[in-house]
């Protein structure tokens, strides 16, 4: 096959630049989630444009202290599939997920020895 036409090369270059911008913006968002400058609830309730194609699982895993097990439990509790994209959440799914995150946040503040006293 011959070399790409100048138009195809320009389109490819623009697409690569856009993909790099999206990756960079998502990495910035994940760092903000990891260091506590943003909350998953904030991102889920009103996702920025660059986050709408991210999965809910990616957002939850970006939080400090959230691993696959905790994410799986939270998503199962909210009846939201792990691969569900933020932009495709229904209003009901979004509301239930936010309530579930509130419950998980409350539970995380209780220490094991405090639970034993009940």
Give the SSE layout.
Layout: H1 6-34, H2 40-45, H3 56-61, H4 68-78, H5 91-108, H6 112-116
Helix pairs in contact: 4-5
Quick synopsis:
The protein is an all-alpha fold and 118 residues long.
Describe this structure in words.
The chain has 118 residues and is mainly α. The protein has one domain (6-116): Helicase, Ruva Protein, domain 3 (Orthogonal Bundle). Helix content is 64%, strand content 0%. It has 6 helices and no strands. Helix 4 (68-78) packs across helix 5 (91-108). It is elongated. The termini are far apart. Residues 110-118 have low confidence and may be disordered.
Number of domains: 1
User: What is the helical fraction, as a range of percent?
Assistant: 55-70%
Low-confidence stretches: 110-118
The chain-level mean pLDDT equals 89
**CATH C-level category:** Mainly Alpha
Determine the CATH topology: Helicase, Ruva Protein, domain 3
- Main beta sheet strand tally, sense and closure: none
Order of helices and strands: HHHHHH
Number of helices: 6
Give me the CATH architecture, please: Orthogonal Bundle
The global form is elongated
Radius of gyration: 19 Å
* Percent of residues in β-strands: under 5%
